[in-house]
Amino acid sequence: MLKLQVVVFLLSVIEVISQCPPSSGIYLRYNGNCYPNGSYFWDKSIRPTPLECVLPGATLNGGQWIGPNGAVPCPGNNSNLSCTVGSGASLSVHIPITDYLQLPGDGWYKCCLPTNCSDPNTNIIFANIF
């Protein structure tokens, strides 16, 4: 019963934006849909399909994903997460098919675009991956 309640709760907090913001700021994109700040994603769902962090109209200048295990080099990997650079100012994070995050990797992930997270003028968005 508790598992069902957790699933219902998680479904209630996942909000899909019907259209991606054209140039109104940073957002998350997964499987063709756009999601707002703080959205939740199952680690098994981002194994085959990457989770993207996008800032329309910007040029990437060192963007960054940071999670419970520290910064994820992009391109590159940290623990069992991999990051790739997309077109414009976008970064994708995914889990290789043979892995899961494991407990130490579950939690809040921060994406910073178009520069890294130490720049106070960068755009920041959060995703919870577990």
What's this model, at a glance?
By secondary structure, this protein is mainly beta. The protein contains one helix and eleven strands.
The ordered string of helix (H) and strand (E) elements is HEEEEEEEEEEE
Beta strand %: 35-45%
Shape: globular
The chain-level structural class is mainly beta
Through-space gap between termini: 20 Å
The value of Rg in angstroms is 14 Å
| Mean of pLDDT | 79
Question: Overview of this structure, please?
Answer:
The structure is a single chain. This protein has 130 residues and is mainly β. Helix content is 9%, strand content 37%. The chain is built from 1 helix and 11 strands, in the order αβββββββββββ. The protein has one helix at 2-13; strands at residues 27-30, 33-35, 39-41, 51-54, 64-67, 70-72, 76-78, 81-85, 90-94, 107-113, 123-129. A 6-stranded antiparallel beta sheet has the order 2-1-4-9-8-7, with no helix packed on it. Strands 3-11-10-5-6 form a 5-stranded mixed beta sheet, with no helix packed on it. The radius of gyration is 14 Å and the shape is globular. The model is unreliable at 2-15 (pLDDT under 50).
